[in-house]
Amino acid sequence: MTEEAPHARAAVTIDALVDSIRRYARYSLGKDWGDCSSREKFLAVSLAVREPIIEAMLSTQRRFDETGAKRVYYLSMEFLMGRALGNNLVNLGLYQPCVHALMELDVDLEQILEVEPDPALGNGGLGRLAACFVDSMATIGLAGYGYGINYEFGLFKQEFRDGWQIERPDVWRSPGTPWMILRPEGVRVVPVFGEASRAGSRTAGKWTGTQRILGVPSDLPVVGFGGEVVNYLRLYAAQSDAQFDMEIFNAGDYVKAVEAKIERERISKVLYPSDDIPEGRELRLLQEWFFVSCALQDVMATHGDDLKRLPDRVAIQLNDTHPALAVAELMRQLVDERGVPWEEAFDLTRRTISYTNHTLLPEAQERWPVEMLERVLPRHLQIIYDVNERFLEDVAARWPGDDERARRLSIVADDGGRDIRMMNLSVVGSHAVNGVSELHTRLLREELVPDFDTLWPDRFRNKTNGVTQRRWLLRANPPLAGLLTRFLGERWITDLTKLSELEPHADDDRFLEELRRIKRWHKDRLADTVRDAVGRSPDPNSIYDVQVKRLHEYKRQLLNALRIVHDYLRITEDGWSPAAPKTYLFGGKAAPGYTVAKRIIRLINEISKVVNADPRVDDWMTVAFLPDYKVSLAERMIPAADVSEQISTAGMEASGTGNMKFMMNGALTVGTLDGANVEMLEEVGDENLYIFGLTTEEIARSKADGTYDPARVVEEDPALARVLEAIRSGPFHANGAFTDLLDGLTGGDPYYVLADFAAFIEVSDRVARDWLDTHEWTRRCALNIFRSGKFSSDRTIREYAKDIWKV
Ligand code: 26Q
Hints:
Elements: H1 14-27, H2 38-67, E1 71-75, H3 85-92, H4 95-104, H5 109-113, H6 125-140, E2 143-149, E3 157-161, E4 164-168, E5 181-182, E6 188-192, E7 195-198, E8 205-208, E9 211-223, E10 230-240, H7 242-250, H8 254-265, H9 282-303, H10 310-313, E11 314-319, H11 325-337, H12 342-352, E12 353-356, E13 367-369, H13 370-376, H14 378-398, H15 403-409, E14 412-414, E15 418-421, H16 422-428, E16 432-435, H17 438-448, H18 450-455, E17 460-462, H19 469-475, H20 478-488, H21 509-534, E18 543-548, H22 557-574, E19 582-587, H23 595-613, E20 621-626, H24 631-637, E21 643-646, H25 658-664, E22 668-671, H26 677-684, E23 690-691, H27 696-705, H28 710-715, H29 718-728, H30 739-746, H31 757-771, H32 774-786, H33 793-805
Parallel strand pairs: 1-2, 1-11, 2-10, 11-12, 12-16, 16-17, 18-19, 18-21, 19-20, 21-22, 22-23
Antiparallel strand pairs: 3-4, 5-9, 6-9, 7-8, 9-10, 13-15, 14-15
Helix pairs in contact: 1-2, 1-4, 3-19, 6-33, 7-8, 9-11, 11-12, 11-14, 13-14, 21-32, 22-23, 22-29, 22-31
């Protein structure tokens, strides 16, 4: 089943494509097509497909230059783009022509697509959001560009050994990618270290004695749907400056010179694999500075000399605080390099920059030691001090004598060691600050930055996340895309709210039958992947119950694990028969230093081993943790899911975006009232998803009065006690590997896993019972699809464009 939306807008004919592919094989790879390896075939096809992309990119960018379109710069440390070839073919309308071209060349396109490395230049949600956003910006036709780092090593590859996660380097670029266009002429010189001086506060300064790093850009084309607009993602690689190297070489210290060179080039080596608590390493600061400097030089060079108009021509969006140095750097460029008076420069800076927050955890907020900034970026530290001084004058005018409040608002934290608070810098330096779901934005305003909210209530707004239906439906689920197109035409591809017109088909048996067939096709396909991972094929008639996301205590994969153990014990010890068989699937990586998260992986793998080997549960249960979760694996797992697990502790998941991908692929959500789940509930109605567990308010209250006693929850629930015992010393004990995990639960349970256990079991059983009514179940899947229109990143980007970027 490879039905495909018939959206071929092919300006390129099949014959021309065949010819072009052969020519690239011959003249770029030096081989006849027939002698090419599958990797070489992938390269030849990609190079051929690149031609119309580059044509469109050149004409798009010429048009933007001529019309003076306002430019949006999306600054992000991470872009989790996923594979490009299939997506580009789909967006160009060349997928079917390419299938046919390759048939003439005797190969299967799907096989060629699987050869492409899956670039993982991001950790998870934040990086994937950036990728969806550049897709939407190009599709909508904005002059929107991503700026980031060309990491040599993306997120590590995950393997399991004895059930433990081990990490391997991801050498995704070797031996070269066809999608990046190297732009050596766009090289930027990034200064670092040295000394700073200025006449007085809030005046122009000088930064001297710096060392230099080169930033060499490569552009990754971003093809908007329809192929008319092609923007780019500009990624910088660090290189040492040959001239600077020569100076040290000439000074006679050869080894020191080579060391200095290696030191520079380290900057773009590797993506930091943690997506929570910042470590405060100097290399990370250098990475942030490096790409901010390159990006802002590019912004200013493109903008030209009419500085007063900067905010009318340019919008800079900070993806979390990671690029927050942009505030200080834009000030420096305006004041020190362009002679703009300080106050005017600050007004321009603030009107140009806006900031998105992605996390509420106080301990996850980025801070840099003053001492480190002073060494690495002395001039920026001065500017940050000046901005803070000016800001605290406003605070003092508003709240005279309220020193406590001034301390809380200050960009400089003076709480044992002096630190710069990047969030405060971002809020002060931006005209708009947004959260990523209604709930998150409310908590951001009320809990994380209440003083800022009182000071500048108009600065805060919500922009609920979204995902691109081009990758997550059209590309990941061609048969479903084909079905939707048959009923709606292609309009849903660029306007997902059109899906609501299908509502009457929720009662159309032929439609539902088709939907069932499509889901079954994906489930069969995924069964092979599961078999490869755990040596056992799941029953495709079972409920595919899927939790895929980064490993985090707050995401509560552990709660899911307890549920599986409970199901197992009920079958093996109580003679219980579940209403329906389940296949419990997991995917996701743990930060290499996150011990608890790694133990949770180990536990799930242990459960998988024991359960899958026990003939007593053969008919009811299969458990698998699929290794190396990444965009391409998500594209396989999500369309095959019947149930989507979104079970974070309420108040902790800023939005979630996987939840949306599952919804539009017709899975039913089991979720807490957290992040964007709340808005999914509003869209789809509580008959069509499964909400359970404590609410944000209940948890906040319980924390405030300190009444939560997890040990008592266990005492009062024998079923739960039995589950914990089975993990401590029963069939899942793994020689005591999980004692720490269990002690963490009974002695504190900060994520309320035990508190939500009973409620989770209740919905989980209800899901199985509801599953038996196939017609009703499928009807609800259909309604989830039809009501997912809000969760397109096109809607999100339109909101940013209108309320924040003013384009
Ligand atoms: C910071 C400093 C040093 C090293 C690493 C980091 C770092 C890196 C990545 C901190 C955070 C991240 C990623 C955060 C993230 O992915 N957050 C998720 O963002 C999604 C998009 O808004 C939301 O849907 C998720 O709820 C949120 O968890």
